[in-house]
Amino acid sequence: MLERARGRAEIAFKLSAGATRVDRLFQEGQAKIRLPRGEPGDPPTAVVINTAGGVTGGDRLDIAASWGPGTAATVTGQAAERIYRSSGGAGTIHNRLSVGAGATAEWLPQETILFDRSRLARRLEVDLAADARCLIVESVFFGRGAMGERVTDGALSDHWRLRRDGRLVLAESFRAGGDTTALFAGRATGAGAIAFATLLYAAPDADRHLDRLRGLVDDDAREPTVEAGTSAFDGFLVARLLSPSPQALRRDLVRILEAFRGRPMPRPWSC
To answer: Sorted alphabetically, which Pfam families does this protein's record hold (predicted)?
Structure first.
């Protein structure tokens, strides 16, 4: 039997003397968290690392981050998460976020790249206090676009569940399997796109930022191959992007995020 990788990492932030600090850090297996020195005045940044170099069938990663009341911090990834060819079964990634009262959280992992014949089951669970603010970004690339790779046999199951004050307020599931190149060829299913991204901002006043985000998405600097749309509802602001070019989508996503956040992306994004 092939050896399977297991990893679990947890980080919690607290407010101490008016500054956000690490309250708890746990890591085991191939899941690690590092805390690089940031720019003066910026909130702390935690970098999640998968030392296995990727995920394949039967592997499991569990990542949890908790923001205490009044804290502000960013959690990102060291590099793109690569989902390799599976010899049996799906790899599993389970991410859990908890954002306390008055806290500001950013969950900014880099893209997930699915290789041909890969299998991934992923889940994101978020618990928000009523006045918490949370920026979430997830992007998925089906194949390595720079190498002309396409996923003709693969599977992705991706579930998002967000709760505000314990009440389920957003539930979203995405499933794609088989020949995803053919699946996404239709006009209603992507028109040839292989790269997809979702930006979600949750805040009591999220709808007030709709025009600003829409302006960023529709800016003249927008990559011509990237299609995008925005919406606001029930304290959520959402932007969706898709493109046949992963490189173009990433460039557009970085441009939008930097303008929306008002500061550069975490350093690992430019490494």
So the answer is: UreD
Which amino acid, one-letter code, is at 219?
D
| CA separation, residue 46 to residues 9, 52, 113, 163, 241 (Å) | 11, 19, 21, 23, 26
Q: Which two tokens stand for residue 175?
A: 């499933």
| CB contact set of 16 (below 8 Å; sequence gap of 6+) | none
pLDDT, tens digit (0-9, with 9 covering 90-100), for 42-68: 899 999 999 999 999 999 999 999 999
HSE, CB side, 13 Å, CA atoms: give it for residue 171: 2
Q: Which residues pair with 237 in a beta bridge?
A: 201, 232
pTM: 0.96
Give the start-to-end residue ranges of the domains of the chain: 6-203
Residue 110, SS3?
A: coil
With contact defined as beta carbons under 8 Å apart, do 134 and 97 qualify? yes
pLDDT < 50 positions in the chain: none
Q: If we measure between CA atoms, which residue out of 137, 154, 246, 147 comes closest to residue 193?
A: 246
Q: Roughly how many angstroms between the first and final C-alpha of the chain, as a whole number? A: 36
Q: How far is the C-alpha of 99 from the C-alpha of 79, rounded, in Å?
A: 24
SS3 assignment, position 130: coil
Nearest to 142 by CA among 178, 93, 181, 84: 181
Nearest in space to 27 (alpha carbons), one of 73, 64, 56, 74? 64
**Closest Cα partner for 89 from 9, 158, 2?**
2
